[in-house]
Design goal:
The complex is a heterodimer of chains A (about 400) and B (about 240). Chain A is α+β, with helices and mostly antiparallel strands. In chain A, helix 1 crosses helix 11 and helix 11 packs antiparallel against helix 12. In chain A, a hairpin with a 2-residue loop joins strand 9 and strand 10. Chain A has 13 helices and 14 strands. In chain A, the strands form three sheets. Chain A has a six-stranded mixed barrel, surrounded by four helices. Chain B has one domain: 3-Layer(aba) Sandwich (Rossmann fold). With about 240 residues, chain B is α/β, with parallel strands linked by helices. In chain B, the strands form two sheets. In chain B, strands 6-7-8-3-9-10-11 form a seven-stranded mixed sheet, sandwiched between helices. A four-stranded antiparallel sheet of chain B has the order 2-1-4-5, with helices on one face. Chain B contains seven helices and eleven strands. In chain B, helix 3 runs parallel beside helix 5, helix 4 packs across helix 5 and helix 5 runs parallel beside helix 6. In chain B, strand 10 and strand 11 form a beta hairpin. The longest helix of chain B is centred in the last third of the chain and has 16 residues. Classes of the chains: A alpha+beta (about 400), B alpha/beta (about 240). At the A-B interface, helix 1, helix 10, helix 11 and helix 13 of A face helix 2 and helix 3 of B.
Chain lengths: ~400, ~240
């Protein structure tokens, strides 16, 4: 009941000086608004990266051809395919920390279905690719070992390709022509969205690596593959797997003082984890900068509350003469300060959310506002009120009743 | 009759710049329940300081003060606040009502701090306003009332908590003579109901309403007269 009355008194006191209350709140509004926007931007960036990690598959190493030297002439990285099927098999059998290896070749080609056509990525691969990338089938069936061994002209369509060629039609079982070669669509892949680099991962056709090399992309260097994705058995052995693969490939490719390493091994998971970490650090920094404005707003509250206490010294004296205890006076002024910051906090939150929404619409930057962030902002603004309101409220409560009554 | 107030050798001194001011130099007095006492004296005589000590708003430098037998000079700030709330009612010269607050809310104020539940608080406040003849103005804001009405609201506020003692500090100081008479009639009425009143004034015709008049000079009581049927009696009369 006392709190309810304190609220009523505080509301009345704030309503008397509307402009002043508003300007005081403005500091908190801007502070909380800025914190919300900054955290939303930071959290949005982190979430995008986290989603990308999830869409990529976990614990992945990528091996691509590096620079090869032939007769003293160094070619650019990736010019010559240096990775062979034998490398793939060797890694699979000799590296204990490796779960599976997925070799791949890439190229692009025109695909035709009926009167529709589409230029897309061709990925030649083995059934392992779907497992490594944790990629599910939306319709039809997966690729099988037989598809690869017999180099069958079967293919899987990425979601974007299926939509562009077939629209609402069911592609499974239909024949498409890739570089004029007829292929049977045996399945459609689930949508994965954007890749870490920002391209559409669903804009591709998967087919057996053997078929791709023999019928579509051609292969001037027999027995080679374009690249391979290696999945470690777990996150703990990822670094170990990296070492094992490096050691084995160095040995197989005779890397030494006289020969440069002709492949590049990348730890994809680590790269993304690092970029996620940097996104988190960024959002933390943005939040910290925004909090400074919140502190400045809090000092504004303190300032105005001190003015208010001085202005109302006589009122405090009357209340004390009538029997208000220190506690009552403290509560009254603290309520006023917290009410100011809470109003400011709520308005700031609404503006912050509107700001975050505008930014994601106008600048196409992903933003994310979590309930935790809202709750934290709410509690934080109340905390600012208590922290910066306490000193003025205590000043009021400690007034001597007789001095306060005599105050002109 | 029981003794409500008992002051023994009260002194009060405080510094004002370099000077040590001795506002009270040994006040000893007793006030019985149901009495109506006026304290007179020129300004600087110590009457207001004495009033503040009686009202537990200030503490004496030396001496003891028993209010209804309880020594209050050693109580903590919060205990004093409770004494003011439960046992005392104040009426000030400048009314000291809260602005932007209705008459009823002003009267309810001491009851709020006493923790009286809402419904009972309303009833008591209205009863107190009824007593001073302002029940019809209960929902008026204090600044919409005339000076005399404001002072009556202040008296109602002092009454609301059923205090043992009402302290009035120059209650008619800001009012014209006609309104002063109205206010004094209210005090007479309260006295008739057996409420103990101590009032500070420097106007003789206001003091004439009291049953007993104490005169202060230079921090001491120089006369203590009691009105009896037809005249004034007591030592030290002027």
């Amino acid at each position: 009941m006392e709190l309810f009355l304190a609220l009523k008194i505080a509301l009345r006191a704030l309503a008397v000086n509307k402009m002043r209350s508003f300007l005081t709140m403005l500091g908190i509004i801007i502070g909380i608004g800025a914190v919300i926007v900054m955290i939303a931007i930071g959290a949005g960036a982190s979430k995008v990266i986290a989603d990308q990690i999830a869409s990529m598959g976990s614990n992945l190493l990528l091996v691509v051809p590096g620079s090869a030297t032939a007769g003293g002439l160094r070619s650019g990285a990736g010019t010559v395919p240096t990775i062979t099927y034998d490398d793939v098999k060797a890694i699979q059998t000799e590296c204990p920390s490796v779960e599976r290896v997925a070799p791949t070749v890439r190229g692009s080609a025109q695909v035709v279905y009926g009167n529709m056509n589409w230029w897309t990525q061709i990925q030649g691969c083995t059934p392992e690719m779907l497992q490594v990338r944790e990629w599910k089938i939306a319709a039809g069936r997966e690729m099988t070992a037989t598809d690869v061994e017999s180099a069958l002209k079967n293919c899987l369509l990425g979601a974007s390709v299926a939509e562009n060629l077939f629209g609402a039609e069911d592609p499974v079982g239909k024949i498409v022509r890739i570089k004029k070669v007829p292929f049977t669509v045996v399945g459609v892949l689930e949508s994965k969205g954007q890749s870490p680099r920002g391209d559409d991962q669903d804009d591709l056709i998967m087919m057996p690596i053997t078929t791709a090399q023999r019928k579509i992309l051609g292969n001037p260097f027999p027995n080679t593959v374009g690249a391979m994705l290696i999945q470690a058995k777990s996150e703990e052995v990822l670094a170990q797997a990296e070492e094992e693969v490096t050691a084995l490939l160095d040995q197989r490719h005779r890397v030494g003082p006289n020969k440069e390493r002709d492949y590049i091994l990348r730890n994809l998971t680590e790269i993304l984890a690092v970029s996620q970490q940097s996104a988190q650090v960024m959002s933390l920094l943005l939040g910290a900068v925004a909090s400074i404005s919140l502190v400045v707003g809090g000092i504004g509250i303190m300032n105005i509350m001190l003015v208010s206490v001085t202005e109302r010294t006589r009122e405090i004296g009357i209340r004390m003469a009538i029997g208000a205890k220190q506690r009552n006076i403290l509560l009254q002024f603290l309520t006023e300060a917290v009410l100011l910051t809470l109003f400011g906090g709520v308005i700031g939150m609404v503006l912050g959310m509107a700001g975050a929404f505008t930014i994601s619409k106008l600048l196409d930057w992903p933003t994310l506002i979590s309930p935790q962030a809202i709750l934290a902002a709410f509690l934080f603004s109340a905390g600012v009120g208590v922290f910066f309101g306490f000193y003025p409220a205590r000043t009021a409560a400690r007034l001597n009743p007789i001095d306060a009554l005599r105050y002109e | 009759m029981a003794c409500v107030v008992s002051l023994r050798d009260i002194t009060k001194s405080y510094r004002m710049g370099q000077e040590l001011v001795e506002a009270l130099r040994g006040i000893t007095m007793e006030v019985e329940a149901g009495d109506f006492v006026a304290i007179m004296g020129s300004s600087g005589s110590g009457k207001s300081t004495c009033m503040h000590i009686l009202g537990c708003l200030d503490t004496p430098t030396t001496g003891s003060y028993a209010l209804e037998g309880v020594n209050v000079e050693r109580l903590s700030k919060n205990q004093l606040a409770e004494v003011r709330n439960k046992k005392l009612g104040f009426v000030f010269q400048g009314f000291n009502l809260l602005t932007r607050t209705t008459a009823r809310e002003n009267v309810e104020l001491p009851l709020i701090y006493a923790g009286v539940p809402t419904r009972e608080r309303h009833q008591k406040a209205l009863a107190a306003l009824e007593m001073v003849g302002l029940a019809r103005r209960a929902e008026h804001y204090s600044n919409q009332l005339s000076g005399g009405q404001q002072q009556r609201v202040a008296i109602a506020r002092a009454l609301a908590g059923d205090p043992t003692l009402i302290l009035a500090d120059e209650p008619t100081g800001n009012l014209d003579s006609k309104t002063s008479e109205e206010i004094m009639e209210v005090f007479e009425k309260l006295h008739a109901q057996g409420i103990t009143i101590i009032m500070v004034t420097h106007e003789a015709d206001v003091a004439a309403h009291a049953r007993r008049v104490l005169t202060f000079k230079d921090g001491q009581i120089i006369s203590d007269r009691r009105r009896q049927d037809g005249g004034w009696a007591g030592p030290g009369g002027q």
